[in-house]
Amino acid sequence: MTTTQDLPELLYIYDAYCGWCYGMSPVIQRVAQEYAGRITIGILSGGMITQEEVGPIGDTWEYITTSLRQVEQVTGVQFGEAYKQLGQAGTYVQNSEPPARALHAFRQLDPEGRAAAFAHDVQIALFERGEDLNAVATYEVFVQPYGIKADEFRRVYEQPGTATAVQQEFAAVSRIGVQGFPTSILRVGSQGYVLSRGYQPYDAFAQGLEQALQQAAEA
């Protein structure tokens, strides 16, 4: 019997604050359903907003609003009024590290490999409901339907080792050479196949995935 360790892995590299990743997320959710049993899905946080880039959303809101319109037109997702009000107020601090900590903590506590679904929840919390991704309490609400206790999640989230692991994750993404988000890579053994840089609709993405799987099988 084939185990999940033997299956090809779709490595989805995203950032919680990436609007195009929010547009790509429904595609990844569908891939997870359609390709269940054929591939596994791993997800890495890219660290789009870190260090000196961390700051109030108002500093870049004019640029963001232009991008939002493009994302909505191309992908069909909608950004919620609560998020737009957050941006217009301008004081909310964007920082990729806290949601990356949340994703890492979730991976440690979830044995079923549902990190892509959790990452989708994180983006809905921000881009639809305008919730605070800097607060651990935000995540505690939606880890519980996954069977994870809020206090256990907080414990792992706040561990010093989680902060270290997140920095290593950001560094690993940088070493891969990822220059933008989302990026999707199929890993089969020691081979890697770049499937997409940026958004792709499902049909185009699935076609590329099928081709990569076939190429890997013939290698």
UniProtKB/TrEMBL annotation:
InterPro entries: DSBA-like_thioredoxin_dom, Thioredoxin-like_sf, Thioredoxin_CS
Highest taxon in the source lineage: Bacteria
Record domain DSBA-like thioredoxin: where: 14-208
Keyword Membrane: no
SUPFAM superfamilies named among the record's database cross-references: Thioredoxin-like (SSF52833)
Organism this protein belongs to: Hymenobacter fodinae
Molecular function terms from GO: oxidoreductase activity
Alphabetized UniProt keyword annotations: Redox-active center
Magnesium as UniProt keyword: no
Name the UniProt record assigns to this protein: DsbA family protein
